[in-house]
Amino acid sequence: MVLDDLFPQAPERLVGAGEVAAFIVAFAALIAASVLRQTGIGALDTIWAEDGVIFLDRALETTLPDALGEGYAGYLHVVPRIASEVVSLVPLARAATATTLTAAGIVALSALLVYAASAGHLRSRPLRSLLAAMVVIHPLVAVESLNALALVQWPLTYTAFWLALWRPARAVNAVLAAVALLLIMLSAPLAVIVLPILGVRVLVVPSWRDRLPALLLAVGLAVQVWAALTQPSPSPPTPGGTPAELATVYRILVATPGMFGFALAENLRRTAGGAVGVLALVGWAAVVAAALLPGMQHRLTALVTAVTSPVAMVIGVYARDSSPSVLAAYAQGDRPASTRFAVVPALLLVTVLAFALDRRPLRAVPPQAWRQVGAIAVGALLVVTGMDYFVINDRTGGPAWSPVIVEAVLDCRAGATEVKLQTAPPVESWQFDVPCSALPR
Q1: What confidence tens digit (pLDDT) does each residue in 410-440 have?
Q2: Does 75 fall in a domain?
Q3: 408 in the same domain as 371
Q4: Lower CB density within 10 Å: C or N end of the chain?
Q5: How far apart are the first and last CA of the chain?
């Protein structure tokens, strides 16, 4: 049945009394894992471009209600706006640390929601823990989407996928899922990918309580559309990309780094060339085939997950016409560009792997043999992830926030009334003005 496959009833108790402490430890560990990934100038002493120029600047200048209604890049960013308002309450000299920890905290909370929301589909706690960890440590997360409020929308979109499938036993958890979906939709337009799932949910779930997530996501989508139509914004790129280009981008951007990571894929590419991408596609096809074998309990959900992966990438890449930059970087032998568009598709592929490993597909396969297959697959994924744990990204070279603040304070003491603060990367367009009254004396 569609109901039992896509929307199984989750366990009555998701977190036992003895697990609360474990969740707190896991939350802290996920934050630490995210913060420590950035090499060079640390994440705690850098602020990502939009986090300073778009969000923190407005939080310092205006009230939260006014900021919430302001679009950027053609859509609303409610979660980053609220988070930036919290950051604005700390001294400006500590803004880098506060912004980084807040962004990492949001992603860590998203990971824990994935763990909770997958309880009805995956009986294996280690596999659910793996999915939660991948929200933070997957190789594709680190390049563009690490510890930045402006980019939490990508892990939030993956969380929305699981929230759309989650049918918790308790009303309070159903309301939590619905409110979370509303906030995500008001911050991440790509969350529209879960709309077909919620449409099916409305048709098959038995109660109005279970339909609340669909209702609130629809409200969030309507508000986003209204904002896009009524607010002035820079002209977006003309959508573009042929089917052949988009298929190539999926292989380059999602399948290959999703299977081999960056470091291993680059080494393999030197010896095997384009065959690496073909091998990655064959590997993921085998994973999908395993998840769809007879006897698997959630074959329909696995199929929906596998189909949503390329759909999510195509929507993002086509809407922003990012195919040329991705293909150009690949032709030059560089790491893929626009990797933020690959975060959700890659996490969905890992999800299909979890479905494939959660249950033994055929009785003819001995349980011990299947456990060994699962251990090898998960071990290989963790090895690849470990190889790409530490990352060089656009924040690695700074500038460090501490000396930026020191220089600004010296300028204020020399007579300036307003100074410019530089965020990372060190490009002139990523500076914002603050009055000297906001800086330490």
Answers
A1: 999 999 999 999 999 999 999 999 999 999 8
A2: yes
A3: no
A4: C
A5: 66
